[in-house]
Design brief:
about 35% helix; Aspartate Aminotransferase, domain 2; Aspartate Aminotransferase, domain 1; single chain; 2 domains
Length: about 375
Amino acid sequence: MRETIQLFRPVVGDDEIRAVTEVLRSGWLGLGPKTAEFERAFAGFIGAHRVVGTVSGTAALDLAVRLLNLAPGDEILVPTVTFVSTAHVIVYNNCRPVFVDVDPATLNISVDDMKRKISSRTRAVMVVHYGGRPAELDDLRAAAGDLPIIEDCAHATGAMYKGKHVGTFGTVGCFSFHAVKNLTMGEGGALAVHEQAYADRALRLRWLGIDKGTWERTPDNKSYWWEYAVDEIGLKCHLNDLLAAIGLVQLKKLPALNARRKLIVDRYRQAFADLGWLEMPADDDPDHRSSWHICCVRLTGADRDSFSEYLKANSILTGVHYKPIHLYHCYGYQPPLAVAEREFRRMISLPNHPALSDEDVAYIIDTIRRYPA
């Protein structure tokens, strides 16, 4: 029987193993020099003023909201087609998520619906680069006016809008380095900030509000080397050196890994061009270069769940990204969002990761073409 083809799979090798071994032997496993090195390297890669490493992408989003100093009940606009973390962090901060419909072509936030949802209570906009494709950042900025924009780049490490890396357009950019993300650490995240005051506060908030990390205090052996200040209550959600060591290796590989994802999508696009019942995601263009974290196709006249079961029976796993958040019970009754609800019933994610061999891709293509739609 054929080995199952996974929807996602991390790509790590001997370089990552050596990097972790080096950290283990150094005796410094926590928040330390490798974390600082990764933060500098990633900031240089995307062109950010400062990067602050966190334990997860969710933690980065949470800190981003905290940096805005919002009041209980303040509203943040958020697209409904995204992972639940994007909305949950708004509630963590006692604010109210206002769900926005999506663009039918890209599944990114609808600028038109966003304009309709802005009110006197709106304090910020959360933008998700769905699947890795950059949202319409110029139009979003024009519509948002002076409102802060938080970029959720969990899918979009390495993606670019008009030649500039996503995560550098808004007030704060948030990244995820979860096990199956384009740049993986197994777990981890980061904030990209463009004002030093935000960077300084984020560094404190991720480490319980303490103004100096242990690594920063270690070289100073003067009389008060142990002293630190705690002026506000923070969290414990910092990155550590074990994860950062993996991230440094992955960062060097990221362009090639993303290029492989794009090549796989291009092969799908060419192979399925004559299938009227299967719609491929929007392609790259001069303004939008996706990281292709997710290859979400949409079906017309074919049942999504039956299609998924057919592929599973042929050892190919799929996913659905995502059920619109406003439909989850934890958010109570929410007004309907027609585009998101319609497209949710048609969407299915195909395997797209650099661990797929050419043989795997050919098998997926052949299997889908044989589906009796």
